[in-house]
Design goal:
254 residues, alpha/beta, Spore Coat Polysaccharide Biosynthesis Protein SpsA, Chain A
Length: 254
């Protein structure tokens, strides 16, 4: 990716120590495996999925995490508590409108973030700490989405959020773009003020909110993390793939 000019420089990236984890959704496609738990508490290779998420954030240099909860939120809080066991400081925001889409969870988090930049991650996505470190330290514009250009399977790309690029900037996001250049991994970084003038999309989806930012002229950079390990876990098949990934590369998530 070509660096974009701007006042948000290397020191600001290095000093980014906060993250928002979206964990409010129901996870309906994984319902057979949740057994009355939140999706992010489903066990993968003997550990709840959210443990891997928090571990990757800590290893990437994050110290403070805000988890947005909704469905079975009390069980997530009982498991993670204040984050001390993960080496983090964890706080919570509750999203009562979580059935309307994950954009509502991001909007519920923003009042807690003041003016500080933050990483945004999903509680049901595995990723290596190195991926988050690359996203956190990438020089350039303050807002960026981690994209993957590598040759992914059709099964993964069919349901993925596609990304259209122009000159290193993101100019469109959506699952049904006619022309696209990469896929959205679900990892991004933002400044809270970027969302100040953007209304929540009618469908409540995060991709629609981010696409609206890009269309309205907000600079959203593409951070190419092709080759780094990550996985969006939505189905039983994804769980099996996650188990394989951890068997082969578990040392990267320790």
């Amino acid at each position: 990716m070509q660096p974009l000019a701007g006042s948000f420089g290397r020191k600001a990236m290095k000093d980014m120590t906060k993250a928002v984890v979206l964990a409010a959704g129901r996870g309906d496609r994984l319902q057979a495996h949740t057994n009355g738990r939140a999706k992010c508490l489903v066990s993968v290779a003997g550990r709840p999925l959210i443990d891997y998420v928090l571990s990757s954030l800590r290893q990437a240099g994050i110290t403070d995490v805000l988890i947005v909860v909704g469905h079975h939120g009390e069980k997530i809080q009982a498991h993670v508590c204040d984050g001390a066991e993960s080496g983090l400081r964890v706080s919570y925001a509750r999203n009562e409108d979580y059935t309307r889409g994950n954009a509502t969870s991001l909007l519920a988090a923003l009042p807690h973030m003041k003016r500080e930049p933050f990483l945004l991650v999903m509680s049901d996505h595995l990723c290596s700490p190195r991926l988050l470190a690359v996203l956190r330290s990438q020089d350039g514009a303050p807002n960026a989405i981690a994209i993957d250009r590598s040759s992914l399977t059709q099964e993964r790309t069919d349901d993925a959020t596609k990304v259209a690029l122009a000159g290193g900037r993101i100019v469109g996001l959506g699952k049904h773009l006619e022309r696209w250049d990469a896929i959205d991994t679900g990892f991004s970084r933002w400044t809270p003020e970027s969302f100040a003038a953007i209304a929540e999309p009618e469908n409540g989806e995060l991709a629609a909110l981010m696409s609206r930012l890009a269309v309205n002229g907000t600079r959203v950079a593409a951070c190419d993390i092709s080759g780094h390990l990550w996985l969006d876990i939505d189905t039983g098949g994804d769980l099996r793939e996650a188990e394989r990934l951890l068997r082969e590369h578990g040392h990267l998530f320790a």
